[in-house]
Amino acid sequence: MRRIFQNGSIVLPDGVLPEGAVLVEGHHIRDIRSTPFSASEADEVIDLDGRFLAPGFIDIHIHGSMGIDLMVADESELIALSRHLAHRGITGYLPTLVPTDDRGFLKTIDMVSHLIHEPIDDGARILGLHFEGPFVNPDRAGALPARYFRTFASDEDAAPFLAPSLAERVPVRMMTLAPEIEGGLALIEALMARQYVVAIGHSQASFEMCERAAALGTRHVTHFPNALAPLHHRHVGVFGWTLLRSDITLDLIADGVHVDWRMIELIRRVKATTQMALISDAIMATGLGDGEYEVWGETIRVRHGRTQNERGRLAGSVINLDEAVRHLLRQGVSLTEALLMASRVPARILRIERWTGSIEKGKRADFVCLDGEGRIAFTCIDGRVVHVADRSAPNAPPIEGERE
Ligand SMILES: [Zn+2]
User: Are residue 99 and residue 214 in the same domain, yes or no?
Assistant: First the structure.
């Protein structure tokens, strides 16, 4: 099957190609041109109608949406979530697990590994798993269930994550941890030996501790600067370390609730866009509107786009990644920069850039087609146009000027 996407602008790694055209053969990008193809070169011509064709979004931190919570979801719910995410421009994601017991982890690992190897029709691709904890700092718990937090004394304490068969079953494995907990550095060593993407998060590590984690291969920080010790002029800590080291990537929740826009502006003045990824950190209540929901063993209240648990803390977001992109556009970030943060940077963090994350010859045909304001027209996964998107989720924080 050969498909041509044309009559729009193509967002390439080194700039936008106006009036460009992309030829897809099967699952892969075969050719990119600055002039239209002739219709006879393909079985189907897809009209971009003056919009942008950009790399599909990749969400490396998501807990659920539309009433589906990954901690308790069954296989059919996970398939439904993948299809929902495809409607929102996402072509690949990492289901993200909060701390639980070994049985809970193993159950989800089983289910996810099955779906990774059996692609979901019309659904976003499950790339692997992100474990947010359980090896994190109780003083920076945020909304994570602290009763399941662990320290690391021997491999047995991390048995589900260190199992030799896991790499084959789950190709991408990411863990957010606090290096300063007991055994934290030894855990990083064990995870690096198993090709994990190790991220610092829910942590108040000192600058020196972060340096030791980096010496072992750590290069990423999760939902910066949420659930980290704040910046202090005499204790620079993980906050200052993340900003100072140009080889460290970070991700952030651009929902207008988790991080003040002025802080995002400050971060952007220090970090290169190529070091910053967008995540949703969406919880199951995303897309359901205001109300009270049972999430991770407690009641979480959602009002005007803000989540709050029983302890008064933020408990994840209720946005989709496409809304984060539109928020950034409203804040004056350029379309190409916002798209980079939603596709190529996350692909690079996961070390899957060789086959996805940008529009280049030979890569998978994973696209999102959107207008200049970030409104999605369709998503394409593996060369197949999967959906014309519906409207925004009802309980997301309003994007100025977009709804009323
Ligand atoms: Zn999270």
Answer: yes
Q: Is 367 in a helix, a strand, or coil?
A: strand
The C-alpha angle 131, 134, 135, rounded to 5 degrees, equals 105
Report the C-alpha gap between 84 and 79 in whole angstroms. Answer: 9
Whether pTM > 0.85 for this model: the answer is yes
Q: What is the distance in A from the centroid of ligand 1 to the CA of 164?
A: 26
Helices (H), 33-74: none
The alpha carbon of 39 and the centre of ligand 1 are apart by a number of angstroms equal to: 45
For the stretch 360-398, pLDDT in tens is: 999 999 999 999 999 999 999 999 998 665 545 556 666
Q: What distance in angstroms lies between residue 223's CA and the mean position of ligand 1's atoms? A: 8
Measured between alpha carbons, how far is 382 from 91 in angstroms, rounded to an integer?
Answer: 9
- Token pair of 37 as six digits: 């193809």
C-alpha distances out from residue 20 to 38, 130, 374, Å:
13, 36, 19
Tell me which residues have their CB within 5 A of the ion that is ligand 1.
132, 281
Helix (H) or strand (E) holding 44: strand 44-47
Angle at 267 between CA 344 and CA 176, to 5 degrees: 60
Asked whether residue 395 is domain-assigned, the answer is: no
Task: Let me know whether 159 and 279 are in one domain.
Answer: yes
Q: How far is the CA of 359 from the centre of ligand 1 (A)?
A: 29
Burial class (CB in 10 A: 0-12, 13-18, 19+), 369: buried
Q: How far is the CA of 209 from the centre of ligand 1 (A)?
A: 23
Q: Are residues 280 and 369 in the same domain?
A: no
What's the confidence (pLDDT) of residue 389? 54
> What's the structural domain count of the chain?
2
Instruction: Name 164's Cβ contacts closer than 8 Å, sequence gap at least 6.
Output: none
Give the model confidence (pLDDT) of 113-151 as tens digits.
999 987 788 999 999 999 999 999 999 999 999 999 999
Judge residue 20's burial from the number of C-beta atoms within 10 Å of its C-beta, 0-12 exposed, 13-18 middle, 19 or more buried. Answer: buried
What DSSP designation does 381 have? E
Return the structure tokens found at 207. Answer: 């600058």
What residues are annotated to the active site? 281
